[in-house]
Every structure is written in structure tokens, then in C-alpha cells.
């Protein structure tokens, strides 16, 4: 009976991890689709991103329920408890990344509807690629229970922040030189900020993974300190 219960418990923990990764995959697809849509003329891709946001929200609710079940019925301790706590925190960040993808899609529709008139030529490819790479790496770190790899995501967030600041400076220059670009510049700024926030949420998740693996809260520490905590074998 005890062995049966133990197997059920292990299966529930594995199901929880699988569901978090499933949600992560859906959210990753959302932001990739939204970014790809920026270079297309068809707004249907944006509308699909907006429609699928409800799927992201539903999965979050289902994972929440599973976490509550494990906490109430299994009363986990030590690393198992940390795994459940981290899952709860991870899905919050993933849901918010889904929200940011939806923002990108809505801004993309506004830009497309306005036509190509007075749209500043600002390259969002680099910041988007880096933010998506951060998300992919933290999900991989979570799947492989790898604190060292997760810590690298914290450092990567610095570059995304710097890229956002550079885009902001470019847009300010465009608006000052030609006020007709103001509306489109603001919409592009919202997109850039949404991408920057995706980096922030990926950074948050990487700190959660370090906590899950090492049992150490590394929030509000600089990247070097996080890397040290992640690699510490004590």
C-alpha cells in the first residue's frame, strides 16, 4: 500500500513538471508567433495569438489545482515542497509572458491596420531573439534540473535591458525628427517593452529554478552572486 501511494505521489510530481513544461511550450509558441507576425502582412497570426491566450490561462488554473492537491494530500517536504512552490511561481511568470505576447499581437494589429505610413525602421529582431532564447533556456534548465544553466539566464537579462534602452533612444530620435511617426513609435515602444518584460519574467523563473535545485533564494542578487550560488556544491 505504501509503495503504491509512493508511486502515485511520484507520478503526480512528474505530471506537475510535465504540465509546467507544456505551458512553457505554449507560451513560447505564442511569443514566437507574435514576433513573426510583425514581419507579415496577414493579421490572422496575431488574432490566433490573442485567441490562444485563453488556453494559457486555462492551463495555469489546472496546474494551480494540481499544486493545491499535492500540498493538501501529500504534504511534501524538502526538495519536493520546493518543486511545488517553484511550479506555482513559474506558472505565474509564464502566464504573464503569455499576456506580453498578446500585447505584441494587439500592437501588431494596430500597426498593420495603419498601413506602412510613418512607421520608424527599428530592428526588434535582436531583442526578440535574445528574450526568446532566455525563455527556452530557462525551460530547458527546469526540465533538466540544472541550476548552473538557469543562472546564465540571469546574466542574459542585462543585454535585453540594454537593447530596450537603445530602442527607446532610437524611437525618441524618430519622434523628435518627424512628429508624424509618434503614433507608430509608441506602438513599437509597447512591443519592445513587452519583449523586455519577457526577459524579466524569464529571469525570475531562472531564479526559481536555482531555488528549487539548491534551496537558496537568489532574488535581488547580482548575476555573479547567482552563478556562484548555482555552482556551489556545499
From TrEMBL:
Please give the superkingdom of this protein's source. Bacteria
Using the record's annotation, list all stretches that form the PhoU domain.
Answer: 21-106, 125-208
Q: Which InterPro entries match?
A: PhoU, PhoU-like_sf, PhoU_dom
Entry-linked PANTHER family:
PHOSPHATE-SPECIFIC TRANSPORT SYSTEM ACCESSORY PROTEIN PHOU (PTHR42930:SF3)
Q: How does it assemble?
A: Homodimer.
- Functional description taken from the UniProt entry: Plays a role in the regulation of phosphate uptake.
Q: What is this protein called?
A: Phosphate-specific transport system accessory protein PhoU
